[in-house]
Amino acid sequence: MRGASHRRGLARSVLAAAGFVLFLLCGGCYDRIELNELAIADLMAVDLTEDGLLKVSLQFIIPSELTNPGGTGAGSGLRDPFYVIEAVGETIPEAFSRVQAKLPRRLFTSHLRVIVIGEDLARAGIGPLFESLTRVRELRISADVVVTQGEAAELLRAAPRLGRLPVSALANMLHQRIVPVRSIREVAIALASDGVDPFIPAVGLTQRIETELEAGVRAQEYELTGVGIFRGDRLVGFAPLDVARGLAWLVDDPPFAVATIPWPPEPDQPAPPLERPDVSPEEALIRRDAPPALGPARLGSGLKEPNRISPLVLRARVNVQAEIQDGRIVMKVDARAIDDIVTNQAGLDLTDPDVIPELEKALEASVEERMRAMLRLAQEELEADVVGFGAIVRRRYPELWRELRRDWHAYYRDLPVYITVDVKVRRTGLTANPPSYRPEQIRK
Amino acid sequence: MSPVQLFMLLVPGIGSTAVLGLPAVTAAFARQDAWLAPLAALPASALVIWVCGRLAARFPDETFAEYAPKVVGWLPGKLCGLLLFWYFFHLDAAISREFADFLIATAHPRTPMALAVGLAAFATAVAVRHGPEILGRLGELFALPAVLLILVIVGLAYSSVDMRLLEPVLENGWRPVFVSGFLTQAFTGQFVLLLVLLPSVNGLQHGVKASYLALGAIAAALVLVSAVTIAVFGPLTPNLLWPFFKVSRVGSFGTVLARVDPLVTGLWVAGSCLKLSLHRYAAVVTLAHTVGVRDWRRLVLPMSGLVAAYAVGHLESTVEHGYMLSYFWAPYTQLFQLVLPAVVLIVAVLRGVEAKRDERG
């Protein structure tokens, strides 16, 4: 009796276990997605056509070409692991469905890492585009966004040498912290926020030097060219890279970059006349025995600007606050940075602690000038509040903001901005004074 | 069921669905102040627990449907039981609907809703048939990973957090915060489950204390989740359907750990199923005690079928669901969560009705 019931219990549990396993197998019967049935898009360019439609160009990964080590297997040598298909539609999903008509596999957009917006579309307005970008289920809201000067689809012609996929080259370049990266989310927030105008990094193409092996192969790389400045959802202008770095400071995303200054900061005497080294070989032989030039001004005098000092920003923090002074709103920008000196070709005596404060003052002035250049562009020329001064005012003075928001751009144009910069030079690279200079060539 | 189990059952059993969807609903009214809404909802939710606790103190071994006729008279009492049953039934259907909506919107766009709802209804029916003990065990199993996952998502999203998006605090005053708090109360007021659960808990006082703690934990989780969501999405928050899900898609830990959203879907499935089972259990037990069915287990399967059918049929689209949650659900649920038990408690106090000493044993 007991044995029978025991056996029946065993049979039941085996049955239950089998049923459980079967249920596991059922997982994803509906809506299953198999990798080899997908066309995985990783890079998208969106342009405005002449008749006002959206042209979507999608770059697809070819997984089998990815696993082939480039250049070794027969026939795999020159084949890129990606290809591009484009289609025109009134909306993004419409264009997607037209792309699908040209694909043997199901279009899969979840792995889009960068979205490139063409200049015409950006100037026409990106609001509708970002509607689709945030709504479509498959798209990741963390994908990066860039704009181009000219057609966006052009950017899909690049075949960067480093990295198997262009999109990794592009995305990794963006994340080198030269100008702030913008994702779909951040641009959408700027579009939806009161008192902020969006900005989007601008990327173009550049040629690389053809080596012997590459002769005849198209040789194009990505290049960060600056920042596209928007007013509302419309592109109104571009800030070149140098100016865009000022923007990076203002939005507290300071670039890990150098910002070279002249030394002395304000040369009171005119630069010494150039002593060009374009001498004949015979003359050079004679001159070799002449005594070397003394004093810092003589070194490297063939360079256009020999007296330069280049710092590298190690850490920086920028705080922007709104304040009321004499019944009027002013912005206070307070930047702090810790610098390393990576070049001292001006020959300044960096072993002297009294010199450092002077150097710091000059560096502070240069950082301020970077921000000023950006502000001149944004406030006076483009009237676009890309730093989000309006949002800062709104956070600090909500009641006042309610009065200002209507005519904010007019107010913003003449908004006084006070900038204080505090730079600390904490180290001087791997050397103290220029090791290649003689003692008398050091600038005291 | 021990008080600890009750705590671990209530936290995911009530908090799970609120975590994912609530910030969008509250941010629609309170904007960047939506993270204050759970705090605004605290007093009313604590009141729900207090009322349930007082009623349970008078009738420690009975559920609401059993003692309501003794308190307010036979017919009104049975009506009260039916009303409470309807609340649990309707809420169970709404949870099914929300569960399926999320699953379909994020992972399985072409799966028929009947299938998603039906599978969940069947799975939870199996759990419910085993009674509150098993539900408590499920809670124990699930609570800790759920809390951990929320913390992981918050941690991963850290680099996308911009606390300035939470300012200005109280830009439009307290009013929108209280409106949002009222909407939150529809979730945190679900502690009315205690009317059915408390008789199964060992140690009434400890059970009530565990419930207050659960309320505190849920409110803390909601404040954290809402604040992080707003700090990541700012003015976009009210227009995202499941904002915290999108937060999970934003975060990453270098290239090592990113895109944890499938885990969120898993959390959602587990949390919703726990919540579904809890309310199914409450609905079935309440109905059984109202109409006098001796073994409530027989009702579980048919009731699950009814819930699934109602869930699929009672709304047309996510648009209706969202509108219902924003404009109808909060006042409607308060009738059952707060008004109904409070009225019964007041009558019980006034008439001095309580279980006989010997029954209390």
Instruction: Please identify which CATH superfamily of chain B we are dealing with.
Output: Amino acid/polyamine transporter I
Task: Spell the H/E element sequence of chain A.
Answer: HEEHEHEEHHEHHEEEHEHEEHHHHE
First-residue to last-residue Cα separation of chain A: 107 Å
How much β-strand is present in the residues of chain A? 25-35%
Q: How many DSSP-defined strands of chain A?
A: 13
| Helix-residue proportion of chain B | over 70%
Largest sheet, strands/sense/barrel of chain B? 2 strands, antiparallel
Number of DSSP-assigned strands of chain B: 2
CATH class of chain B: Mainly Alpha
Strand content of chain B: under 5%
CATH topology of chain B: Amino acid/polyamine transporter I
How many separate domains make up the residues of chain B? 1
Measure the end-to-end span of chain B. Answer: 19 Å
Decide which structural class fits the backbone of chain B. Answer: mainly alpha
Shape call of chain B: globular
The Cα radius of gyration of chain B reads: 20 Å
Characterization of the model:
The complex is a heterodimer of chains A (444) and B (361). Chain A has 444 residues and is an alpha/beta fold. Helix content of chain A is 31%, strand content 26%. Chain A has 13 helices and 13 strands. Chain A has helices spanning 2-26, 63-67, 92-100, 119-124, 127-135, 166-174, 184-192, 241-250, 281-287, 355-381, 389-396, 398-404, 408-413, and strands spanning 38-48, 54-61, 82-89, 106-108, 114-117, 144-147, 199-207, 220-231, 234-240, 261-262, 308-325, 328-344, 417-427. The longest helix of chain A is centred in the C-terminal third of the chain and has 27 residues, at 355-381. Chain A is globular. Residues 70-76 and 270-274 of chain A have low confidence and may be disordered. With 361 residues, chain B is an all-alpha fold. Chain B has one domain (3-356): Up-down Bundle (Amino acid/polyamine transporter I), CATH 1.20.1740.10. In chain B, β1 (252-253) and β2 form a beta hairpin. In chain B, α2 (37-58) runs antiparallel to α9 and α4 (74-106) runs antiparallel to α11. The mean pLDDT of chain B is 88.
